[in-house]
Queue: 3 jobs
Job 1
Amino acid sequence: DTGVSQDPRHKITKRGQNVTFRCDPISEHNRLYWYRQTLGQGPEFLTYFQNEAQLEKSRLLSDRFSAERPKGSFSTLEIQRTEQGDSAMYLCASSLAGREGLRNEQFFGPGTRLTVL
Amino acid sequence: AQSVSQHNHHVILSEAASLELGCNYSYGGTVNLFWYVQYPGQHLQLLLKYFSGDPLVKGIKGFEAEFIKSKFSFNLRKPSVQWSDTAEYFCAVNAWNAGNMLTFGGGTRLMVKP
């Protein structure tokens, strides 16, 4: 399968614990995005990377959220001191930025469903 | 800030009925527009996209959408739905001055009765 993959698919944790999710983009894609989707809502943009550079992070929900893409390939999203309100589906997407600049199609992974007890 | 509205939250149709799902966005500049579909248990998939040119775009599985700039709309249509079209549909917008952020509508859950 050459699509976007995410691990784990499901995570149950207790309030106050830290969690980390991984995303592997499509191999030739240089842009990687994180979104959050809560029940009954559309995905909400969190942050994105071009190669290893994090170009937009102002939409991260709080300072408990952080993301990395150290080698420009896979990315991790960490939530520290989880709260019940963090329960959601966390989606990763990737795209290939070309000469058309912003005209890039984002391909989504299956998501990681987080439940905070 | 850009926003996207999908006015129909739930739609129930019988097979062979025609479908139109509304999508309106608020942003005055140049936009790229998308419709994504999420079938039960599956991840988001691109249905169709508009970047420029002919405002009537055709996507997969017989879907099409029309960009009407004066109405800030990008409605999704299909002349005859099938049971397999049961899914959730999301409209999304990328404004040219908003980096690579996609702004999604709240989604429309479509149920097609056999």
Note: Chain B has no helices and twelve strands.
Job 2
Amino acid sequence: DTAVSQTPKYLVTQMGNDKSIKCEQNLGHDTMYWYKQDSKKFLKIMFSYNNKELIINETVPNRFSPKSPDKAHLNLHINSLELGDSAVYFCASSLTTGGPIYGYTFGSGTRLTVV
Amino acid sequence: QQPVQSPQAVILREGEDAVINCSSSKALYSVHWYRQKHGEAPVFLMILLKGGEQKGHEKISASFNEKKQQSSLYLTASQLSYSGTYFCGTANNFGNEKLTFGTGTRLTIIP
């Protein structure tokens, strides 16, 4: 049973296209995240949802739009893809009741390549 | 601001010890440690919540110096399976504060 599942694992697309990445967790966690890992391996937070409510929205271009239909799902839609969007995108989840005292569980990542 | 990790990279022979440091410019509420193997997702190792707290996980342990805003990860008698990139993640406040990951330390264990 996969705890945090992300699809697709690989995404190769042309500049200007629109694409979506889906994430689902079956851990009963209340908070989900999108992180971007660039070629230098830096992990940078993009968004966070707590029980379907957006709580963190870092300085991310408006072309990125997250959606959380329920607390077990978090999707990421990207419009008008650019070369600089190429990266690995990780979904993660955590239990945050009581504060940031629990570890994150990451999905396997989506390697996005824009050509 | 991203926590700074040192060293950036280290190569060890099996059985040797390593220390990875994580330093923040902000006050810390909690510090997480993760290991990421090549092409895989980061995996949670441990979390430290209080200043001075030390935790252990088999031969991997960590300490948290709240005053110095620093944490260190200790790997003892390293095994080949310890290879990977280690990240610290810091949370500054109680509540739904984001986890900010450090710059990463690449650890290579050779036989």
Note: Chain A has a mean pLDDT of 93.
Job 3
Amino acid sequence: QVQLVESGGGVVQPGGSLRLSCAASGFTFSSYGMHWVRQAPGKGLEWVAFIRYDGSNKYYADSVKGRFTISRDNSKNTLYLQMNSLRAEDTAVYYCAKDTVVTPFDYWGQGTLVTVSS
Amino acid sequence: QSVLTQPPSVSGAPGQRVTISCTGSSSNIGAGYDVHWYQQLPGTAPKLLIYGNSNRPSGVPDRFSGSKSGTSASLAITGLQAEDEADYYCQSYDSSLSGLHWVFGGGTKLTVL
């Protein structure tokens, strides 16, 4: 069965950096695009970034463009999100999600909490 | 605020029917992009509920149905059950000056009375 497990969350000071990971199993990781989606405490869902199956194209929300970088290692079945210049408003649970042509977020991980605070 | 507009909350008694609207514009739903719906139970990750406007993934009860018309979409839930109490999000795509983005509605909290 499809399994997505995020890790790397924690507490970081404003201006700091953090790298999130998402370990995938139960499907052919190298054949699917992948997303990061976040949810601030008590708020709704916000799409963050997308990477094509082969890493050839990446797309970002305007709120994170230039600060966050999505990447993947298909040999390790792992998705990453490098987050730099973090701000208080980046505080959220970050989910990775699998993409298909028909269903953009058909499976989700359990999420990892990132808290940006001094 | 969100690109797609949903009512903050809806409620209904067990057994009743409720609908949740999702209103967009000509750069997203009205441009012909599909609408998808997700259910988020308290304290859990979202789960795909409806895809491609009106299709249910395997395992989703037929009490849940979706539709789309013009710049709006709707999720209908019939025969309300206590376990349906959750947050519901619509999702589509938006083509703007900064490119193609995936967008969510602000979410609707369903309360089963």
Note: Chain A has no helices and eleven strands.
